[in-house]
Write a structure and sequence with these properties.
Rossmann fold, alpha/beta, five-stranded mixed beta sheet, 385 residues, Helix Hairpins, Heat Shock Protein 90
C-alpha cells in the first residue's frame, strides 16, 4: 500500500495549532508521505474542500464557527466523497454513531493519537475510496456502453425495417400475380424469399424491442385484460403453425382470475413467444395452457409441452440474449425469451421455467392483479428492472 499512499494530499482541519502539528508528526512517524494543507475553522475548511482535491481529510470534531459535523455534512451534501476521518476528544458511543451517520469514514480519539493507528485509518480510508471510485467508473463505463449499444440497435433497426418491408410488399404483389402469372417454381422461390424476409423482420423487431427495454423507453399501456380471452385469441393466431405440426392445443382456465390490469399487447407478445416455442420443440405432442390464480390475487399462465426439454446445464442460459442452444436448430433470433422475461418484469411479474430432457418444458408467466403503481388504466413508460 505504500506506493498508493505516498504523496497523498491531506487536509488537516483543527483550530489548535499544537494539535495540527501533532497530526503532522503522527503522519510522518506512520510512514505516510503527504502534502498537508491546514484549515483552522469551518469556513476555511469548506473553502479548502471547494478549491482543492484531497485524498483524505482529518477533521476535528470541535471547531470555532460550528462543529466538525457541519463541515462533514456540508461536504457530503455538496457531493464531496473524499474520505473524512473525524478527530474527537469525545469517545461516547452516541457521538461516534452521529459521525458515522453523517458520512465519516472513521473516527479517532485525539488523546494519545498513535502514528500506527492514524496510518491504518488513513490507508484503509484511501484504499476503500479508491476501490469505490474504480467501481463507480466501471459502472459508468458499462452504462455508457449499454446506452451506445441500445442507440446502435435502435438506429440499425429503424434503417433496416424500411427496405425489409419493401421486399415483403413487392413479394406480396408478385405472389398475387399483379405483374403477371408465375410458374410453380417461381412461386415456390418467392414464398421462400417471403419467409426469409419475415424472419429477418422478426429479428429486427426483436432487436428494436431489446434496445427500448435497455434504454427504459418501452411504452406500457395498462387496461383491463381478460387472460382467458387473450389466450383463446392467441390460439387462433398460432393454430396454423400447430396444425402444420399436428399439435393439439388446450386451455384450462376454470380457476383463472377473470381480469387484471396490465398491458395486453405485452402479455400477448410474451405468450405468443412461449406458445411458438412450445410448438417448435413439442414434437407434435399436445400442448396445454393452464391459467390459474397467482400470488396476491394475480394470475399464473403455464405453457406446457411434452417435447425435447432443456438440459439442466442449459437452463440458466436460455434467458441470455442471442443464445441459441445446440438443440435449438430452428433458426430463431435468440431474443424471444430474454425479451419475454424483461417484459414480465416490466409488468411487475416474472417468467419461470421447469424442464426435463425428453419429458418437456413448462414456462410459467406470473402477473400481478395490477401493474405496480397503476390505480387506473393509463399510458406510461417504465425502465427495465
Amino acid at each position: 500500500m505504500s506506493g498508493a499512499s505516498e504523496n497523498l494530499r491531506i487536509l488537516v482541519v483543527d483550530d489548535d495549532e499544537v494539535d495540527r502539528m501533532a497530526v503532522r508528526r503522527a503522519l510522518r512517524a506512520g510512514g505516510i508521505g503527504a502534502e498537508v494543507r491546514e484549515a483552522a475553522d469551518v469556513d476555511s475548511a469548506l473553502d479548502a474542500l471547494r478549491d482543492g482535491v484531497f485524498d483524505c481529510v482529518l477533521l476535528d470534531y470541535q471547531l470555532p464557527g460550528g462543529d466538525g459535523l457541519r463541515v462533514l455534512r456540508r461536504a457530503r451534501e455538496a457531493g464531496v466523497d473524499t474520505p473524512i476521518i473525524m478527530l474527537t476528544g469525545q469517545e461516547d458511543t452516541q457521538t461516534a454513531v452521529e459521525m458515522m451517520k453523517a458520512g465519516a469514514s472513521d473516527y479517532l480519539a485525539k488523546g494519545g493519537l498513535s502514528p500506527e493507528r492514524l496510518e491504518r485509518s488513513v490507508r484503509a480510508a484511501v484504499r476503500i475510496h479508491q476501490a469505490e471510485s474504480e467501481a463507480r467508473r466501471a459502472e459508468e463505463e458499462r452504462e455508457r456502453a449499454v446506452a451506445a449499444r441500445s442507440q446502435f440497435y435502435a438506429a440499425m433497426s429503424h434503417e433496416l425495417r424500411t427496405p425489409i418491408n419493401a421486399v415483403l410488399g413487392y413479394n406480396d404483389l408478385l405472389l398475387a400475380e399483379v405483374y403477371g402469372p408465375l410458374n410453380e417454381r417461381q412461386a415456390q422461390g418467392l414464398e421462400r424469399s417471403q419467409r426469409a424476409a419475415r424472419h429477418l423482420l422478426e429479428l429486427v423487431n426483436d432487436v428494436l424491442d431489446l434496445s427500448k427495454l435497455e434504454a427504459g423507453k418501452m411504452e406500457i399501456l395498462v387496461e383491463e385484460v381478460s387472460a382467458p380471452e387473450l389466450i383463446e385469441d392467441l390460439f387462433v393466431t398460432v393454430r396454423p403453425m400447430a396444425e402444420e405440426r399436428k399439435t393439439a392445443l388446450s386451455l384450462r382456465g376454470e380457476a383463472c382470475r377473470r381480469t387484471i390490469l396490465t398491458d395486453p399487447r405485452r402479455v400477448r407478445q410474451i405468450l405468443l413467444n412461449l406458445l411458438s416455442n412450445a410448438i417448435k420443440f413439442g414434437e407434435g405432442k399436445p400442448i396445454e395452457v393452464h391459467c390459474a390464480e397467482g400470488p396476491d390475487g394475480g394470475i399464473s399462465v403455464a405453457v406446457t409441452d411434452q417435447g425435447v426439454g432443456i438440459p439442466t446445464a442449459d437452463l440458466p442460459r436460455i434467458f441470455d440474449e442471442f443464445v441459441q442452444l445446440p438443440s435449438a436448430n430452428t433458426g430463431g433470433t435468440g431474443l424471444g425469451l430474454p425479451i419475454s422475461r424483461r417484459l414480465a418484469l416490466l409488468l411487475g411479474g416474472s417468467l419461470e421455467v421447469e424442464s426435463r430432457p425428453g419429458e418437456g418444458s413448462t414456462f410459467r408467466l406470473l402477473l400481478p392483479a395490477a401493474t405496480p403503481g397503476e390505480a387506473s388504466p393509463s399510458a406510461r413508460s417504465l425502465a427495465p428492472a
